Amino acid sequence: VDSGEPDTGPPGRICGDEHPDVSGITGTEGVIIARDGTLYYSQSGGVGRRTPAGAQEDDFIRFPGASTIWGLALSPDNATLYVGSPGDGRIYIVTLADSSVDFIRAPGANGLTAAPDGTLFWSNFSDGEVFRLGDGEAPEQVTTTSIRSANGVAFGADGALYVAHYRGGMVLRLTLTDGVETGRTTYAESLGNPDGLVFDEAGDLYVSDNGSGTVLRVAPDGTQEMIASGLPAAASVEFGAGPLSCTDLFIASAGGLGRVDTEREGRLVPWH
What we know:
The chain is mostly beta strands. The chain has no helices and 25 strands. The radius of gyration is 17 Å and the shape is globular.
């Protein structure tokens, strides 16, 4: 981070000017970045991390017997890492201070995110539903009707939950009341196989197309612009934070982890 004044981001955010080469991180489906710049990424059977100092640790944490690891999320205090493992039907809950692991049952856990109040939300890719972790630490269903192959999830500045409809090639906007869906509209269509979702500060949505290996920037009026390509099985997307540039978008893919400078800062999220 610049030793002078932080750049002009939203209050509470620090943005650096590092644009790291992360192409050596391969075979990843999920990516999430802590406010100190630690980058966590999924690996087969575990989670790797890139430290703020630049060290790459592919075996940061392993889950015995686990295979596929997809979505990742961080708690607002950055103390807890949530790890979706659809094959195990679990979300692993990692306390980062001591690497201790607990879990909740979550069949088909795919896209994960923290709501503005810190509540964990996730999609069930298998059954096409969205859930939240309720006050009783038990999953509570959010959706009232199925979203076939529900994938990435992200909250917009309007408080709505946006859900990637993988099979339908669209993103849906869910109005929530007390954490339960009370309305649904189509936000954008013709998106291929939409996977990861993230907003920038201007209100545009970034959508990875898993099928074509591209990332689209979708304006509220529906205008689409391709900003990245050549990323096989493009999945989760996440903006940088901490010493990393907040205009860099990181894209998980089966090939190397992608990074593109969007020239726009990502929307301030609870974990940044």
